[in-house]
Amino acid sequence: MFETPMTVVGSIVNDPQRRHVGDQELIKFRVASNSRRRVADGSWESGNSLFITVNCWGKMVPGVGAALGKGAPVIVTGHVYTSEYEDRDGNRRSSLEMRAIAVGPDLSRAIVTIQKPGYTGPVAAQNPVDTTAAAPASDTAADAATTAEPASLTVSA
């Protein structure tokens, strides 16, 4: 199967829909990406728009469902394909869809706080803390830092 990789920068235009397909969970939403260009007088002129349905599977579902919603600025990377179907009148139609590999907020248009066990952030990286004196008897702190739970995000646009 030929897969076309693509990255789309845009905004979520509908409420993400979460559902089960067989024994897997899926969350899907539509992204609009609009181009603009500056004209000679300094104003902006709208260009073409791209609308794409994004399908997120597996480990992305909890994170996307918790952090992103309608209107959120996002960057989505994945494999693009066309989905063909018949409408109510029997006409053949197709839509552009993406099976997401990675989804995240667009940090040029949002402020994000990452909440993940073991993530100390940029402040702690600038001021290293001596952890040898306060090290626990077991590796429970290390275990908490490597759990499979996704980070939760707070997005402010």
Supply database-style keywords.
157 residues, mainly beta, OB fold (Dihydrolipoamide Acetyltransferase, E2P), five-stranded mixed β-barrel, two-stranded antiparallel sheet, 8 strands, 13% helix, flat
Descriptive report:
The structure is a single chain. The protein has one domain (4-156): Beta Barrel (OB fold (Dihydrolipoamide Acetyltransferase, E2P)). The protein has helices spanning 60-67, 121-126, 140-145; strands spanning 4-12, 17-21, 24-38, 44-57, 73-86, 92-105, 111-115, 152-156. With 157 residues, the protein is mainly beta. Helix content is 13%, strand content 52%. The chain is flat, with a radius of gyration of 20 Å. The model is unreliable at 127-152 (pLDDT under 50). The strands form two sheets. The chain has a five-stranded mixed β-barrel with strand order 1-3-4-6-5. A two-stranded antiparallel ribbon has the order 7-8. The protein contains three helices and eight strands, in the order ββββαβββααβ. A hairpin with a 5-residue loop joins strand 5 and strand 6. The relative contact order is 0.19. The two termini are 38 Å apart.
Short description:
By secondary structure, this protein is mainly beta. The chain is built from 3 helices and 8 strands, in the order E-E-E-E-H-E-E-E-H-H-E. Mean pLDDT is 81; it is low at 127-152.
